[in-house]
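Subject: for your reference before the review

Hello V.,

The reviewers asked for a structural picture of the protein, and I figured it would be easier to keep everything in one thread rather than splitting it across files. Below is the amino acid sequence we used in the manuscript, unchanged from the supplementary table.
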Amino acid sequence: MMDDEIFDKYCQAGAFAASVIRKGAKEIRPGVPYLEVIEFIEDLASSGESGLAFPLNVSLNEDAAHDTASFGDERIFAPGDLVKLDLGVHFDGYIADTAITIDLGNNGLLVDASREALSRAIEKVRPGVTVGEIGAAIQAEIESRGYRPIANLTGHGLGRFVVHRSPSIPNIAIQGGVMLEEGMVFAIEPFATTGSGHVNEKRRVEIFQQISQKPVRLATARKILEAVSGRQGMPFAKRWLPDNKPDIAIATLIHAGVVHAFPVLSDIPGSLVSQHEHTVIVTGDHCIVTTA
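And here is what came back from the structure prediction:
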């Protein structure tokens, strides 16, 4: 239930996220190390009373979501890269999720497509509107520029220490769907692509989430659970773990149903994907954008 105190915490998280992502975006330039930028932004986001709701996602070119730095990542931002910067922070567990695209090439129209789709979607938000109507607004804005929305990625509801919950906010028109109500909190995140409009999982996995509590026999697996116990079920990065070779332990936890993996999600090779995202709270007659 939304009360003034919870509302204020969501807004505080949103204002902080907006400040951090603006500062972080300025660090993304050709020749700058990928890991260096990610650690800089995550350090900013973990200062004060706020913390990271999930590892900073920095996804390049055809990769749409779920990429972040690995141990000793040696990638360097290059001229022409299209960089999606997706940040989640929380204040006392109340989450703000926001994303922007930084264009290191000449892809202004594609970047505009996701940005303007987000604006049109926010204009639609009010009690009584269905998520299908929001998806239709997103799809129309992206397609009007000659691109495709990514149909199998959606926005999502937010809760205390919960990054993904109902309602899902589609990026394409659907019939009906959940009707918005006052007090709902969710992230709207349009993706525009030059590719197929559908993402698939890559083999690369750097982000995980504990999803259950079960006893495990492997000592290194128990150490991972101890290391992430303070996350309250929110996602974590492999590079945050004390062991820099945790793959066997993580595989054990996944097999046991204790941990869920988030592979990098990518459109077809050679395509480009742009993304923009804001967190909103539905009010009596419209919405508040916490991350503006």
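For the response letter, the relevant points are probably these. The chain has two domains: 4-199+267-289, 202-264. The longest helix spans residues 4-25.

Happy to draft the paragraph if you're swamped.

O.
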